[in-house]
Design the sequence.
């Protein structure tokens, strides 16, 4: 008997509130981690681009392994507190504490030791964030939504992403300019901790599936993720994941160095970036929210292809302009349509997830969406910066200022994602039922 919500099951107002609160808070934390953590390392530890690449890669590996292991574990959990809830509640609390502790690595005066510690601190924070958000929270949103509601859920979740991005981008730069990195990270960690505690306490789950007395061991089930049978049985899902992987590699070539590029090559201030970032996020919301609604009704493949081309052209344009209005326009095209691609692909992906193993397969998504792109992309970006960047010295440490080529190469790589998208075939392009 299936425990998936029926099409007549409505998501309660309480569940929408919990979903929005956890999504906004989690996305603020991830947005800061993906952008301002890198800038923090560049400004306070070393301008060498390699530590940023190492930090992003280790964080990606941690996120992927954590989501695979904890997602599979949450699929199998049967506790008095629920299936996903313990992972979400305690994960968010620890996520907040580790964020508060993160900037203390700057007190270490030996650069080589500081680099090692900042990588470890970021990985620890990522472990808790991925347990709470990537594994348990994302699986919970799939648990409570019927197939015909998932596009709407993705639209709301991505609205939360935009709200979080606006807060993170607009508030972050201004706050860092005015109070510094330390107070900013302390405040962010406190918000994650408190919201995670309150919303996690309010979270409710659908009835847990009955325990299968013949259930295989954890490691046998985990190992099944990497079998050829799994690939054959979920061919459309893996083709879609290949598309996500290639486009994400392209984005990660430039994104970790974006703020460093804008501040040091283009010459804008953190407050200027906040203004540009806020404008980009508002404009992007106007594109991606309708895109999520249309994803349930139209040809996803065509929508994703068009949005990918526009996003790549926006990335190239971003490398060619320097005035704030043009930076905002280029940033809107680059990021807004990249998020539109993500909205359609994630909605499609959740339709293809096997019903009883959503947490486990969301872990597979992390390999293609996070681990491989965040290892390969930043490494390519770092190599390009070292080969073509402008030499500089900051805090007595030698390094390089990023240059426009990272956006140009990243956009061209993203376009290669059109190849696997072509092989999805028209019959896979429309909304599909859960496997």
Sequence:
């Amino acid at each position: 008997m299936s425990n998936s919500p029926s099409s007549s099951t409505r998501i309660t107002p309480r569940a929408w509130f919990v979903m929005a609160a956890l999504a906004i808070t989690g996305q603020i934390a991830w947005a800061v981690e993906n952008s301002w953590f890198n800038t923090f390392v560049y400004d306070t530890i070393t301008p060498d681009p390699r530590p940023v690449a190492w930090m992003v890669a280790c964080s990606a590996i941690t996120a992927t392994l954590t989501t695979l292991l904890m997602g599979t574990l949450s699929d199998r959990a049967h506790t008095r507190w629920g299936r996903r809830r313990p992972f979400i509640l305690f994960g968010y609390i620890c996520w907040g504490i580790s964020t508060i502790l993160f900037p203390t690595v700057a007190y270490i005066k030996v650069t080589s030791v500081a680099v090692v510690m900042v990588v470890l601190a970021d990985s620890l924070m990522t472990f808790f964030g991925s347990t709470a958000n990537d594994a348990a929270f994302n699986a919970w949103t799939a648990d409570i939504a019927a197939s015909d509601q998932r596009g709407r859920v993705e639209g709301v979740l991505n609205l939360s992403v935009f709200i979080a991005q606006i807060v993170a981008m607009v508030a972050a730069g201004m706050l860092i300019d005015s109070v510094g990195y330390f107070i900013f990270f302390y405040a962010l960690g406190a918000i994650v901790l408190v919201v995670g505690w309150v919303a996690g306490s309010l979270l409710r789950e659908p009835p847990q599936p009955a325990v299968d007395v013949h259930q295989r061991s954890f490691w046998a089930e985990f190992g099944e993720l990497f079998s050829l049978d799994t690939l054959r049985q979920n061919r459309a899902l893996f083709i879609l994941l290949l598309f996500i992987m290639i486009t994400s590699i392209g984005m990660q070539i430039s994104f970790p160095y974006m703020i460093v590029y804008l501040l040091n090559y283009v010459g804008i201030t953190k407050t200027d970036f906040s203004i540009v970032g806020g404008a980009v996020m508002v404009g992007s919301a106007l594109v991606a929210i309708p895109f999520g609604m249309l994803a349930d009704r139209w040809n996803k493949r065509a929508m994703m292809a068009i949005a990918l081309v526009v996003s790549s052209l926006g990335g190239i344009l971003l490398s060619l302009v320097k005035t704030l209005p043009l930076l905002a326009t280029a940033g809107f095209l680059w990021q807004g349509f990249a998020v539109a691609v993500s909205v359609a692909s994630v909605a499609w992906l959740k339709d293809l997830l096997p019903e009883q193993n959503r947490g486990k397969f969301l872990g597979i998504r992390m390999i293609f969406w996070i681990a491989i792109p965040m290892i390969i992309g930043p490494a390519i970006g770092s190599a390009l910066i070292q080969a073509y960047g402008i030499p500089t010295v900051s805090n007595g440490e030698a390094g390089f200022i990023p240059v426009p080529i990272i956006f140009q190469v990243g956009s061209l790589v993203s376009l290669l994602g059109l190849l696997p998208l072509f092989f999805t075939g028209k019959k896979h392009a429309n909304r599909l039922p859960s496997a």
The chain has a mean pLDDT of 84. The beta strands are 390-394, 397-401. The longest strand covers residues 390-394. The domain at 13-205+219-429 is CATH 1.20.1250.20 (Growth Hormone; Chain: A;).
